[in-house]
Design goal:
Layout: H1 13-26, H2 39-46, H3 50-62, E1 66-69, E2 73-76, E3 80-82, H4 91-97, E4 102-113, H5 116-122, E5 129-139, E6 142-152, H6 153-157, H7 169-177, E7 183-192, H8 195-201, E8 208-218, E9 222-232, E10 236-242, E11 258-266
Antiparallel strand pairs: 1-2, 3-11, 4-5, 5-6, 6-9, 7-8, 8-9, 10-11
Helix pairs in contact: 1-3, 2-3
Length: 277
């Protein structure tokens, strides 16, 4: 167990211990389910009392980062938080529901000519003008996803003058203009981050990211926007749950109705130490 005291000389001793354990968890050196050093080992390493060690562990336990078993010691908790996605939600709803503070940075918002892919998805003529919105999505102030969204000009004009770093497209269209988002179509795949995307997400170039391509529709099957979202793979995974319809003949193959489709977000401490780099 290695520890350098130079960076923590001004911190209370219990915070030194808790910060060191957080860094071990953030770096992956202590994975989910891993056992922490014993109280005696922590006492010896940090030259502190047993009371100080226990105070540090209590802090981490209250944050949900660890759990303790009587007579066995302390272990790294599964700090990913479940969030339902069976219904259509936006980024703020997803993240807030996971107990993480959401925020966004608008990186680009302007008109451009639609590519063939964008035009086909939005139901507009190829190379006709649409609007493109790029946003960096943050959880507790740290990068978690990058969005690139294309909108037909009719819907884009409804966003003019709005603060898209604080308001979501769903919120504006539904609350202000009574335009409901009634359906979404998703495509999910793993891709390697190019140099630009890696810079935004603070990861290495060619590192794998989770790509989600989403088309959202209003009534009459009218596309509202086409979005490509790229998640850091160390911060979200998806859980899919299906169930068979018991009314169907079990001897006849049938589709499995979707019961649950959930992203599992990693809790990001607000002290900014929740992301590996």
């Amino acid at each position: 167990m290695q520890y350098s005291s130079s960076r923590h000389q001004r911190l209370p001793r219990h915070e030194v211990v808790s910060q060191w354990i957080r860094s071990e968890i953030d770096s992956g050196r202590l994975g989910i389910g891993a056992q922490l050093p014993s109280e005696k080992e922590l006492q010896k390493t940090f030259n502190i009392s047993r009371i100080t060690v226990r105070r540090a562990l209590q802090t981490l336990e209250s944050e949900g980062l660890i759990y303790r078993k009587q007579g066995l010691g302390s272990f790294v908790a599964d700090y990913r938080v479940r969030h339902g996605l069976v219904r259509l939600t936006d980024f703020s709803e997803d993240i807030s529901g996971a107990g993480i503070e959401p925020s966004s940075k608008v990186l680009f918002y302007a008109q451009e000519n639609a590519s063939e892919e964008v035009a086909l998805t939005l139901g507009i003529e190829p190379h006709s003008v649409c609007a493109r919105l790029d946003r960096l999505r943050l959880g507790n102030g740290r990068p978690i996803a990058f969005d690139r969204t294309w909108l037909p000009l009719y819907y884009a004009r409804l966003l003019d003058g709005r603060d898209l770093s604080k308001e979501t497209i769903y919120q504006i269209l539904q609350r202000e203009y009574k335009i409901p988002v009634v359906r979404g179509r998703y495509l999910i795949e793993a891709v390697n981050a190019d140099k630009e995307l890696a810079g935004y997400l603070e990861i290495k170039e060619n590192q794998a990211v989770l790509a989600i391509y989403r088309t959202s529709f209003t009534v009459s099957d009218q596309p509202i926007y086409f979005q490509k979202r790229f998640y850091r793979c160390d911060r979200v995974i998806y859980e899919l749950e299906l169930e068979r319809d018991p009314s169907k003949n079990p001897s006849i193959p049938s589709a499995l109705p979707l019961r649950q489709f959930s992203p599992l977000f990693v809790q990001v401490p607000k002290n900014g130490q929740g992301f590996k780099k």
